[in-house]
Amino acid sequence: MNDAVTLAFPAQTQNVALARRVTAVMAARADLPLDRLEDARLAVDEAVSQVIADAPPGAEVVCVFEVQDHALDIVVTAPSSSGSVPPKGTFSWTVLTALANTVTAAVDGGVVVLHLHVSRAISVDV
């Protein structure tokens, strides 16, 4: 099942909770287990917080959530004051990359683009 939702909101910290709520709904649609649903919520919290911290006044954050076969792809974008990706040596980046299966960051035309992929945990036979 492919299912996509786009959420846009002013780049203000009080809107981070809105992004977390939509993430939880979309993770549930992806049939992620509860622990991965929480990981997705926290990852989006970190990603949105990072882009808001670098967004110019009046900017808008856009989050695109796409469900794909027991996985959730999330793209978080916002204009950047610095014109660079979030620093990767920070605690926030470490948390973000620990919560998602993959995280990529780029800047395209002055807009920061964070792409997160969260899927079910892969079982390991011992």
Provide structural commentary.
The protein is α+β, with helices and mostly antiparallel strands. It has one domain: 2-Layer Sandwich (Heat Shock Protein 90). It has helices at residues 16-29, 34-54, 91-99, and strands spanning 2-10, 60-68, 71-79, 102-108, 111-119. Strands 1-2-3-5-4 form a 5-stranded antiparallel sheet, with helices on one face. 32% of the residues are buried.
Topology, pairings included?
Blueprint: E1 2-10, H1 16-29, H2 34-54, E2 60-68, E3 71-79, H3 91-99, E4 102-108, E5 111-119
Spatial strand order of the main sheet: 1-2-3-5-4
The total tally of domains equals 1
First-to-last CA distance:
31 Å
* CATH homologous superfamily placement: Histidine kinase-like ATPase, C-terminal domain
Q: Any idea of the CATH topology?
A: Heat Shock Protein 90
Determine the structural class based on helices, strands and strand pairing.
alpha+beta
User: Which spans of ≥5 residues are poorly predicted at pLDDT below 50?
Assistant: none
* CATH architecture grouping: 2-Layer Sandwich
Relative helix content: 25-40%
Shape: globular
Largest sheet: 5 strands, antiparallel
Quick recap:
By secondary structure, this protein is of the alpha+beta class.
Which tags fit this structure?
126 residues, alpha+beta, Heat Shock Protein 90, 5-stranded antiparallel β-sheet, 35% helix
